[in-house]
Amino acid sequence: MIDVRHGVPVWHAPAHGPELATEQDAADLVGATYGLGADVIVVPVERFPARFFDMRAKLIGHFFSKIVQYGFRLVVLGDVRRHVEASTVFRDVVRESNRGKDVWFVADLAELDTRLAAGR
């Protein structure tokens, strides 16, 4: 589903579907948006398996890089507190990502709207 939020075309991955974790999964998401004009891909946190947030697995970096490489911004939508509490490295990833413009972790759509509005 595509919608425009604060002038930015946003594609929302379905809340239900196969787990997402690999570079190929990221490429498949990009493919799903082909021709739709999206700038931002929003993925519900529930689509990622727990191992995705284990920084030793190195899945998160490869996944994020693939999305950004194709010129999209990525938003992980939902509560990641338990992963942040379990890993100082992941906490740092969230903090640094949210400082940038390519990958954000947001709790809900209201927070996404606030971030997009601030970026205009």
From TrEMBL:
Keywords: Hydrolase. Residues 6-116 form the DUF4180 domain. This is Alpha/beta hydrolase. It comes from the Bacteria. The keyword Hydrolase applies. InterPro entries: DUF4180. GO terms for molecular function: hydrolase activity.
